[in-house]
Design brief:
heterodimer; A: alpha+beta; N-terminal domain of TfIIb; four-stranded antiparallel sheet; B: alpha/beta; Rossmann fold; globular; Multifunctional methyltransferase subunit TRM112-like protein (chain A); Trm112-like (chain A); Trm112 (chain A)
Chain lengths: 121, 353
């Protein structure tokens, strides 16, 4: 799982209001290089919940992201950090934790399992 | 920090409870889907995946038309056939089947295990979404509609959604005999707990005998048909009845009751066999317990373990009617292609005034 996916994920347990972001408990993180595409990154900036990305990256061991996303002009050094955090950090083993209910969604071999149990629906 | 949206509570307690119980039943997986969709795909995943390689031109065209850099959400992605089809887009796929998702992740695709009726995604993240041969595995109209609402919810305003489903009106009618229509007296047995395939009623009924259901090997057939366009359908059905599928009152009813009501209206509910060759079955390991519990049967003549997949095939106009019930999206394209009904929706753009 990469942070681009994590940024979108929610806990759909019935009754939970604060569904995202999910807190990451990282057990195994690997880095995989991805081609740098500034246009794509600028497109993603509008979608991304910045604090969730910063916190997520920190949980995966990357602390270089600025606390706030820059304004309209995003320069290359910033984009490089954004790129690394968004696309190159892979959570192989760990959990995604719902901040409100405490429910843990497992991540195994890089794949989160977000299925709810019967009673949670 | 994301704003937390809190709904104004203007409903009475009773209305709220009714809403909650009906939404409860919509998001819960009915027994028929657990047994005849989820468990089957889990058991057949690698074999199924090996037969799913041809890219359907209509889906490819849709994906290739998307702007470069689009985030595309594939709900019910199966073996990930379409993930990455347009290399300029970023795909995120989900499926309810862990074994199928494993096939995707082994290919390096960005995937998760999730339920298409209840996508664990915040709204408007995607630029586009696709649902290819998925909705026909949902056994109630409310669930099918929910799945469409989810697809619309997760794309941005102005975003496009492509949905394809098996048609009741099949092009190749020569394969009519392969499907088992659900009938009311078997719904209780097949859907309820216990061993459906081993019940005396089923065993003694020649209709369910495999001799009466001639079969061709699906994967070989797919390969011979050429790669021009291989939709998910392999076989056809009986003559469709031209009846309307009404939006039934489905609150507070069990999934069995809902299915029985659907059957009274018209025959669109089927079990479609999947023949898993013995050597594949042994590798998967799931077949031993499936055979023991009666979920699957052996066909020694063909050397396969036979599973049944549940389908609700769509009649002409049904997908459109369902989609037009979704408030904030309009239908921008509709077509029939290779025995599938297909639709493209566009989510309402934000008001510009």
């Amino acid at each position: 799982m990469r942070l681009i996916m994590h940024n979108m994920l929610t806990c759909n347990i019935k009754g939970v209001i604060n569904k995202s972001p999910l807190r990451i408990e990282a057990e195994k993180v690997i880095k995989k290089e991805v081609d740098f595409n500034p246009d794509f990154l600028r497109h993603m900036l509008a979608k991304i919940e910045w604090k969730a990305l910063v916190d997520g990256a920190r949980s995966m061991g990357y602390t270089e992201l600025p606390v706030h996303a820059p304004g309209i002009e995003s320069d290359e050094p910033f984009l490089r950090k954004f790129h690394h955090a968004l696309l190159e950090l892979n959570l192989e083993e760990g959990s995604l934790v719902c901040q409100e209910s405490g429910r843990k969604f497992p991540v195994n071999k890089g794949v989160p399992n977000m299925l709810l149990h019967e009673k949670e629906v | 920090m994301r704003d937390v949206k809190v709904k104004a509570n203007s409903k009475s307690t009773e209305e709220e409870e009714n809403e909650m119980s009906s939404s409860l039943s919509v998001k819960s997986t009915p027994e028929i889907e657990k047994k005849y969709v989820h468990r089957v795909y889990d058991a057949i995943a690698p074999h199924f995946s090996s037969t799913r390689f041809a890219k359907w031109p209509k889906v490819a065209a849709f994906l290739e038309s998307l702007p470069s850099g689009s985030v595309v959400l594939d709900a019910g992605c199966g073996n990930g056939k379409y993930l990455g089809l347009n290399p300029s887009c970023f795909f995120i796929g989900c499926d309810i089947s862990n074994p199928l998702i494993k096939i995707c992740s082994d290919k390096g695709q960005e995937v998760l295990v999730a339920d298409a009726v209840n996508l664990p995604y915040r709204e408007e993240f995607g630029d586009a979404a696709i649902s290819i041969a998925v909705l026909h595995h949902l056994s109630t109209e409310n669930r099918r509609k929910s799945a469409i609402e989810e697809l619309v919810r997760v794309v941005k305003p102005g975003g496009f959604v492509l949905i394809t489903v098996w048609a009741a009106e099949q092009e190749d009618k020569s394969l009519l005999t392969k499907w088992t229509p659900l009938s009311p007296k078997y719904v209780e047995e097949w859907v309820g707990p216990g061993s459906p395939m081993n019940s005396p009623r089923v065993r003694n009924n020649p209709f369910f005998g495999l001799e009466s259901i001639p079969e061709t090997d699906v994967s070989a057939k797919d390969q011979k048909a050429g790669l021009e366009s291989i939709p998910e359908t392999e076989e056809s059905t009986r003559e469709p009845k031209a009846t309307q599928d009404s939006l039934g009152e489905q609150k507070d009813k069990s999934s069995v009751e809902v299915l029985l009501e659907a059957l009274k209206m018209n025959q669109q509910e089927y079990f479609v066999p999947w023949h898993l060759p013995y050597h594949r079955a042994e590798v998967s390991g799931a077949s031993a317990s499936a055979l023991a519990s009666g979920l699957a049967k052996k066909d020694d003549r063909k050397g396969t373990v036979v599973y049944n997949r549940y389908y609700h095939v769509f009649s002409e106009g049904e997908l459109e009617r369902l989609a037009s019930g979704v408030g904030n999206a309009i239908i921008v394209d509709r077509f029939y292609d290779k025995s599938n009904w297909c639709i493209v929706l566009q989510k309402e753009a934000l008001n510009q005034d």
